[in-house]
Design a protein that fits this description.
It is a single chain. The protein has helices at residues 2-29, 90-100, 124-139, 157-167, 182-189, 204-207, 228-237, 255-270; strands spanning 49-55, 59-66, 77-83, 106-110, 144-154, 172-176, 215-220, 242-247. By secondary structure, it is α/β, with parallel strands linked by helices. Strands 1-2-4-3-5-6-7-8 form an eight-stranded mixed β-sheet, sandwiched between helices. The radius of gyration is 20 Å and the shape is globular. The relative contact order is 0.13.
């Protein structure tokens, strides 16, 4: 009898955990850190400016637009859309943006809904809506060549970047520490939970098969969250082929630092 009661109690507890995971999974998946968007001039990007866009007609998104330091004479510059990883925001990665912003290209980066200085709530749909708003804003600028728009996505941002490259003509796609899909990431952390409750997709492995632009993939060899095998599979699935750059000893969140100048130079050369 005692065994039966314990079994029932465990079953009820497990069902409650599953229910909570179903209801709150977007909050678990997107731990959106809040912080106001700093003035880009405060980190040395004197040519940068804070901007605001809206999605869904009302949700305010805060971000940066950084024009090229040396715009081409008589021609429009290429543009780079930047989608950062989970747990980041513009305030957190401002020094990275300063160091990696291509001098010959325009840069646009937005905080996702619920992140940084943007309003709204963090969701997968909000991630994709941000990407669409950013693409439209950069493509419509008179000083940017819409035929030379590049997309950069790191970790969670890789899902926004890949999806955008599927939906729009882009000149190139850069992925840093990409994962295959939400299921394979969640399986490592929440193996106890059944697959049917997962409502998130974030399926880079399937989406990349519809991308036909040049692809550059950076991945740390010591990445435990999204193991380097995920980067290899993403690169192998790209129809037009992809260049995979493995950064020796780098984990999931330090590819910028571990890659150093070679990382920066590789990125800059990719954007033409």
């Amino acid at each position: 009898m005692l065994v039966l009661r314990v079994a029932v109690a465990l079953g009820v507890a497990y069902a409650l955990v599953v229910l909570l995971a179903w209801v709150f999974q977007e909050r678990l998946a997107f731990p959106a850190p809040r912080a106001s968007v700093p003035d880009p001039r405060a980190v040395g990007l004197d040519r940068g400016q804070r901007i605001e866009l809206t999605v869904d007609g009302h949700t305010r998104l805060a971000g940066w637009f950084v024009p090229p330091a040396a715009p081409p004479a008589g021609a429009r510059a290429p543009g780079l859309l930047w989608f950062y990883g989970n747990g980041e925001n513009i305030a957190a990665i401002a020094p990275v943006l300063r160091d990696l912003a291509p001098p010959h290209a325009a840069l646009l980066v937005l905080d996702y809904p619920g992140y940084g200085g943007s309003a709204g709530r963090a969701t997968e749909a909000g991630l994709y809506a941000t990407a669409e708003a950013a693409y439209t804003a950069l493509a419509q600028r008179a000083d940017v060549d819409p035929a030379r728009l590049y997309v950069y996505g790191r970790s969670m941002g890789s899902a926004a970047a890949v999806r955008l490259a599927v939906r729009h003509p882009v000149a190139g796609l850069v992925l840093d520490s990409p994962f295959t899909n939400a299921w394979e990431i969640s399986r490592a952390r929440y193996a106890i939970l059944p697959r049917f409750i997962l409502r998130l997709s974030l399926d880079n492995l399937r989406a990349i098969r519809a991308v036909h632009c040049p692809v550059l993939v950076f991945h740390g060899t010591a990445d435990r969250l999204a193991p380097p095998e995920m980067g290899r599979r993403i690169a192998a699935a790209a129809p037009a082929g992809a260049e995979l750059v493995l950064i020796e000893g780098a984990g999931h969140n330090d590819t910028y630092a571990m890659g150093g100048r070679a990382y920066r130079d590789k990125l800059w050369r990719f954007i033409k």
